[in-house]
Structures are given as structure tokens and as C-alpha cells.
Design goal:
The two termini are 19 Å apart. The mean pLDDT is 90. The protein is built from 11 helices and 16 strands. α1 packs across α4. It is an alpha+beta fold. It folds into 2 domains: 175 residues, no CATH class; 213 residues, no CATH class. It is 41% helix and 20% strand.
Length: 404
């Protein structure tokens, strides 16, 4: 199994400058390769440029520009070209499936924040000084950078990446390790229903309150964004000291919200995995749920539109994104795999409209947001608990129908 580790880097001033130059040069390579792929579409031939053709040009590019492109790892530059190739593959895949994706775009230096090294020892070396009590990672063109390693790395290192977040630098490792032993069986199964009012409701009647990290930080973020809006948009190298401090403040607040959301997701998922052998959850299509409503053209005059509830839907979308369901489910599946637990996603259709006692399904069973009242048998309960019960039953049926 593959696991990722993320550690804070402690570069010196010169190393931080070199890391910034590495990102800038890889960004330039990415944008140049993207331009090369775009150009043929303006000609009659419409020839296709692929990764193999661009990778073969790297040797000439490095020889032509040794000060910028020639000093960095050849493998990391190949990984940057593969990154662009994956973007185009995803673009055409979505077109074939009937979606309307955006065409791959050019990246600004502030948007390009990661450089990947596909193999440990090729352009980089993790723990490059094993006899030194301080862990260091070596990058070609940068040197030995100090690492704040807060936990041990288990397994064989596969890839190494350097990432910039605001003014901080991180190293991200992926390691292949053997499957750890499963946790002792508890004999418990649970269904969970994700929501807005409560982050999570389980089939045993328990609730996890929604932390609403984004809403709590909304006032500070609004003030920081207003302070930033007073400055004209400029490139990073042309910003004044006050402008840069305003940018850093916004980045710091967003990072704090993201870290709190991740911490809450990890702790909630760990609590479920430790207690239950089987976990069922709704197969939520979060992208579809948070999609903006389509405009309704008015019939009176051109350019007029009818009310479509966009303002109310925007508030709901903010709450959905603030809850972080997608991050939580990804963490839950990863922790369950490590612990030997089973997690199944089920169809969420009518889970909050079906009575868990008699099976009667009707939208009238849920007259308002929270209480559930069955019109057939009179059963009453919290609607999220009802949904979790139905999710658990559907998950058990699916597990028994598809035995491992």
C-alpha cells in the first residue's frame, strides 16, 4: 500500500531563493509545453503534440538554456511534462463523457507550487545525511535542506515532491509499505449521514456537530480581503512590502481554516474506524450538489432573467464546501484500508424519505428540515438518524450481495 508523508522544510535564505527559482523554471517549462500543444490547432494540419515528442526535446532545451533549465533534475522536468499530459488527458476524457471542461490554462508563478521527483535518488535524496541527527533532503540545484521530521517514515520511498504553501516549504513523500495488521474486530456496523446542520449523524443516534471553520473565520477573511483589494494587482516581484503583507495575511487565514478542517476530518474518521468494523455512507456527488443553478431568461426583453434562487444556492454551496465532505470521505477510506475495516458507499436516493420501521417512502414523511414523521405507521425520529439507518441497511445488503 502507498502512504504519503508531509514534512515542513527549514531552508536557508539562499536555499529558499533556489527553491523559488526551481518552481519558476518548471512553471516556464510547463507554459512553454502548453503553448507548443496549442499552436497546431491554429493551422490547417492540426497535428498532435504528445508527451514523447516534448520529452525528447528536453536535452536540447537544457543545452540551450543551461542557467535556467539545465541545472535542474531531468526527471523532475519529465514529471512536469507528464503533469501537462495528464491535464490534456483529463480534458479530452471529460469531453467524451459529455461534460464541458475548461481547456488547460497557463500557470502563473503563484499557481505553480509543486515540483515532483519521480524516484528517490534521481535528482533528490531523502535523508541524505543518515549520520546527522537532523534529517535533511537533498535537491539538485538547491542542496541539503533541513527537514522538520515529526514522525518516522515506514516503507520504501517512491517519490519526493517539494511544495510551497504561502511562505512555507514542505516535502511530500510517497512510501510503499506492507499492509499493516487489522485492528481487533468489534462486531459493530454503522451507517453515517453527512449534513450541514450536523456534520455527521450515525445509525446509533449519535451526532457530530458541524465545526463551520469557514464561517467562524469569515469576518477575519472579509477584513483581510478588503485590505488586499486596496492594492492594484501586481506580480509578486513588483509588490510593495504592505501589499505582500496583505497577501500573506489572506494566505495565512485560508491555511488556518484548511488545517482545522483537515484536523477535524482526521479525528472524526479515526473515531469511526476504531469503533466499527463496517461503515456505510452515502455516495455523494459533491460537484453536482454544489453546482450553481442555470439562469432563467425572461420572456419580456433581451438580457432579462427571472429569479432562479442563485443567492440561496450560493449560501448552501458555501456550507457544503465548508463542511469538507470530500476530504473527510477520502480520509475515512484511507484509514479504513490501513485498519482492515470495510467502507461501502450506497446510493443516497430516498434515504431520508423512507421509514426504517415499515419501509414507506414518500416526500411527505419529511415535512420540514429535521423531524421525520411516517404517514403510514406514525414513526417519528430525527431525519438524519433515519437517513443513517437506511444507509446502513443498504450497505449491509450490498455487502451480502457481493461477498469478498
Amino acid at each position: 500500500m502507498i502512504r504519503a508523508y508531509k514534512f515542513l522544510l527549514r531552508p536557508t535564505v539562499r536555499q529558499e531563493q533556489a527553491l523559488g527559482e526551481m518552481l519558476r523554471d518548471h512553471c516556464s517549462l510547463y507554459n512553454g509545453a502548453l503553448q507548443e500543444r496549442r499552436d497546431p490547432y491554429g493551422h490547417v494540419s492540426k497535428s498532435t503534440v504528445r508527451y514523447g515528442m516534448q520529452s525528447a526535446q528536453l536535452k536540447e532545451i537544457r543545452a540551450f538554456d543551461p542557467e535556467c533549465q539545465g541545472r535542474w533534475s531531468f526527471s523532475s522536468q519529465q514529471a512536469t511534462l507528464r503533469r501537462l499530459d495528464k491535464a490534456f488527458a483529463a480534458f479530452f476524457r471529460r469531453i467524451k463523457s459529455g461534460d464541458t471542461p475548461g481547456y488547460p490554462r497557463f500557470r502563473g508563478v503563484s499557481w505553480f507550487d509543486t515540483v515532483e521527483f519521480p524516484k528517490d535518488g534521481d535528482g533528490c535524496r531523502w535523508d541524505s545525511t543518515p549520520h546527522d541527527p537532523v534529517t535533511r533532503v537533498r535537491f539538485q540545484g538547491v542542496g541539503h535542506v533541513r527537514v522538520n521530521q515529526h514522525r518516522a517514515v515506514a516503507g520504501h520511498i517512491k517519490t519526493v515532491s517539494v511544495k510551497r504553501e504561502g511562505r512555507k516549504w514542505f516535502v511530500v513523500l510517497t512510501a510503499e509499505r506492507e499492509q499493516p495488521g487489522p485492528l481487533p474486530a468489534s462486531g459493530s456496523a454503522v451507517g453515517i449521514d453527512l449534513g450541514i446542520a450536523s456534520f455527521l449523524a450515525d445509525s446509533h443516534g449519535g451526532f457530530v456537530p458541524s465545526p463551520r471553520h469557514g464561517r467562524r473565520a469569515a469576518k477575519k477573511l472579509e477584513a483581510a480581503q478588503q485590505a488586499l483589494s486596496r492594492f492594484p494587482r501586481r506580480k509578486a516581484k513588483d509588490r510593495t512590502a504592505n501589499h505582500q503583507r496583505a497577501v500573506d495575511k489572506v494566505v495565512q487565514l485560508h491555511g488556518k481554516v484548511r488545517r482545522r478542517r483537515l484536523d477535524h476530518a482526521h479525528k472524526t474518521a479515526l473515531g469511526l474506524v476504531r469503533v466499527h468494523d463496517f461503515i456505510a455512507h452515502e455516495d455523494l456527488k459533491i460537484r453536482t450538489m454544489s453546482r450553481a443553478p442555470a439562469p432563467k431568461p425572461g420572456s419580456g426583453r433581451p438580457g432579462a432573467f427571472l429569479p432562479n434562487g442563485a443567492a440561496a444556492k450560493a449560501g448552501l454551496n458555501r456550507s457544503i464546501h465548508d463542511a469538507g465532505w470530500g476530504v473527510f470521505l477520502a480520509i475515512l477510506h484511507a484509514k479504513a484500508e490501513s485498519a482492515g475495516r470495510e467502507v461501502i458507499a450506497v446510493n443516497p436516493r430516498n434515504t431520508s424519505r423512507t421509514c426504517p420501521q415499515c419501509g414507506h417512502t414518500a416526500k411527505e414523511n419529511r415535512p420540514t428540515q429535521e423531524p421525520f414523521h411516517c404517514l403510514s405507521c406514525g414513526h417519528t425520529a430525527h431525519v438524519d438518524t433515519v437517513g443513517a439507518l437506511n444507509v446502513l441497511r443498504a450497505g449491509l445488503v450490498r455487502r451480502d450481495a457481493n461477498p469478498a
